[in-house]
Amino acid sequence: MKLKETGSQNSSSRPGLNSDRSNSIFFAVMKKVRTRFAPSPTGPLHIGGVRTALYAYLFAKHAGGDFILRIEDTDRNRFVPGAEEYIIESLNWCGIIPDESVTAGGPFKPYRQSERKEIYDKYIKQLLNKGHAYYAFDSPTDLEIQRRAAEKEGRVFSYDASVRMKLKNSLSMTDEETSRILASGEDYVIRIKVMPGETISFDDMVRGEVSFPSESLDDKVLMKSDGMPTYHLAHLVDDIEMQVTHVIRGEEWLPSTPTHILIYQALDLADRIPRFAHLPLLLKPEGSGKLSKRDGDRLGFPVFPLQWKDPVTGEISMGFREKGYYPEAFINMLALLGWNPGTEQEIFTLNELEQLFSIQQVNKAGARFDPEKAKWFNAQWLHRKPVNQLAAALKKQVLELGWHNNRTDSYFYKAAALLQPRVHFEYEMAQAGKYLFVTPDLLDEKVLAKKWKEPYRSFFTILKDNLANQQDFRAETIELTVKKTAEHQQLKPGEIMQLMRVLVSGQSSGVDLFPMMELLGSHEVVQRIESGLLKVKG
Ligand code: GLU
Fold first, then answer.
1. Among 436, 455, 475, where does a domain finish?
2. What are 365-384's pLDDT values in tens digits?
3. Are 314 and 395 found together in one domain?
């Protein structure tokens, strides 16, 4: 790369980019909202990242716009094999389908930054030519020395206007010296030249007006010694090239945004600065501090959408999918972590979220992740699932457990319908309804100790006979028989209901009692009462 290249880009060769007039034409024509999710493939996607993707997607879809997935892989040291595939599969599982991406293609391909190097080179040259960027030759050791010296004086070293003329760069050196070093092949980086004395302000869609003095910004590296751009340059160039109108990202990027704005200005593209929305953090269940993988490990919940196997250590991290969550429940929960629709409604399909989402209703404060609420969302979605689907899952589980006993599909259907309101996850169904398939061995001792009285034995003996003689074994008629028999024996139904449940199911609680008895059928119920009575002492 040559110092101060001549023949800088002709502004008219990029229509719409360089003059104020054409910029306004650009935005008039390019009204379409375009957002992007731009993860770096450095590991599994944290649920905070999925929420960012979801909000960017919802924002675009609400406005009838496009959502782009761009892979930001310019930091080769942090590249993790399999991470890109993981990100793509995660979004796919969630139903967050990009309009443009590495896999879907699109008019601005490639969508992987490592394949876009020439595009960044073009922009960096422009910044160098205009004197907004400069070469810096300081070695990592030089910088470490500076850092230590600053530390001794109680300062934090920052490569900026206050020190740059004392350091090894093309601003502090003569052009001849710089050319000589460049020609010698020595390592260099390219930094942005931030001028002191400016205030950079922007209107964040979540936080409102934000201002930073330019003295608080360092001369960030735009291109590293390996010739690859840093995130700061690459994402911005891509946002320009891909015509991104709204940047929705995590709040950790807020402090870098003023530098990004200065780069747009330095490129004469101030009119192309997108609107920004910096999303609040996802917090630990306890309420303070960023939600981390360690919190998940400690409290037994996933923080990743899908299971992830670390390619180096082989360590497996659990995923919401593998933990039995429905993708609908997962995104519903994530949508409400930081956004609210302004009503009491909590259950939303992706489609409904697209209709309702507004960035104005995203909270400024961090959102506490509540693992119990996550389960609640799954239960809500399970309650809305077709019984057929649950019946098939239940049948599979029961077969695997060896409890089949020749039950018909209709039996599984009815059992699933009874269990549906009582479980959070499909995988819990068979165990939660074991008594619907297997005669209980043990009866709930606590309930018996507390509630059993001798006269009940004769009541249940009579009841069992009455039930055995009952032709029509439907829930309503069973209930009637129980009530009538109790009345006859001068017992209140309330006294014997839970005991009857214990005799029939072994448990103190469970699915609705009379429908359960109907499902088990007269023969089984009578037998269970008989064998139950033998187990009850007293
Ligand atoms: N590559 C950045 C990340 O990993 C993207 C930040 C942005 O959206 O600008 O978070």
1. 436
2. 999 999 999 999 999 999 99
3. no
pLDDT of 24 higher than 80:
no
Confidence check: pLDDT of 401 > 70: yes
Q: With 90 as the cut, is the pLDDT of residue 8 above it?
A: no
323 plus 367 within the same structural domain: yes
Query: Is 316 strand, coil or helix?
Result: strand
* 249, 256, 264: residue to mutate for ligand 1 pocket, most atoms within 8 A of CB: 249
Residue nearest to atom 2 of ligand 1 (CA): 39
- What local confidence, expressed as pLDDT, does residue 287 receive? 85
What does the pLDDT read at residue 537? 82
Of 409, 436, 463, the position where a domain reaches its end is 436
- The sign of the torsion formed by the CA atoms of 44, 251, 241, 228 equals negative
**Whether 477 and 412 share a structural domain:** no
pLDDT at residue 5 is higher than 70: no
User: Would 182 be classed as within a structural domain?
Assistant: no
Give the model's pLDDT for residue 48.
96
Atom of ligand 1 nearest to the CA of 72: 1
Tell whether 346 and 416 lie within a shared domain.
Answer: no
Task: Quote the ligand 1 centre to 268 CA distance (angstroms).
Answer: 23
Residue nearest to atom 10 of ligand 1 (CA): 39
Residue 375, in any domain of the structure: yes
- d(CA 260, CA 247) in angstroms, rounded, equals 12
pLDDT exceeds cutoff 70 at 2 = no
CA of 355 to the centre of ligand 1 (A): 26
Gap from CA of 121 to ligand 1 centroid (Å): 20
Q: Could you report how far apart the first and last alpha carbons of the chain are, in Å? A: 95
CA 465/CA 316 separation, integer angstroms: 56
459 and 530 in one domain? yes
The arithmetic mean of pLDDT across residues 56-82, rounded, is 96
Residue at 492 is within a domain: yes
Pocket-testing residue among 231, 246, 254, 260, ligand 1, by greatest number of atoms within 8 A of Cβ: 231
Ligand 1 surroundings by CB, under 6 angstroms: 38-40, 72, 231, 235, 247, 249, 253
- Structure tokens given for 254: 């807020």
Q: Is omega for the bond preceding 110 within 30 degrees of 0, making it cis?
A: yes
Ligand 1 centroid vs 318 CA: distance in angstroms?
24
> Does the structure show a pLDDT above 50 at 309?
yes
| Pair 530, 468 in one domain | yes
Q: What is the Cα 299 distance to its own chain's centre?
A: 18
390 and 378 assigned to the same domain: no
Decide: 84 and 41 in contact? Cβ < 8 Å.
Answer: yes
pLDDT for residue 336: 97
Of the ranges 109-113, 401-405, 492-496, the best mean pLDDT one: 109-113
Which tokens is 446 given? 């606590």
Ligand 1, atom 5: nearest CA belongs to which residue? 38
Query: Within a domain: residue 431?
Result: yes
pLDDT, mean over the chain: 93
391, 359: one domain: no
Atom of ligand 1 nearest to the CA of 252: 10
Task: Please state, in angstroms and rounded to a whole number, the distance separating the CA atoms of residues 338 and 245.
Answer: 22
Q: What is the CATH number of the domain that holds 479?
A: 1.10.10.350
Please state whether beta strands 308-309 and 189-192 pair in parallel, antiparallel, or not at all (unpaired). unpaired
Specify the CATH number for the domain of residue 401.
Answer: 1.10.8
Number of domains composing the chain: 3
CATH code where residue 337 lies: 1.10.1160.10
Structure tokens at 328: 């609908």
Active site residues: 293
Q: For residue 372, give its domain range.
A: 284-382
Rounded to the nearest whole angstrom, what is the distance from the C-alpha of residue 71 to the centroid of ligand 1?
A: 9
pLDDT at site 29: 53
Ligand 1 pocket test, pick from 34, 35, 40 with the greatest ligand atom count within 8 Å of Cβ, gives 40
Share of the chain above pLDDT 90, in %: 91
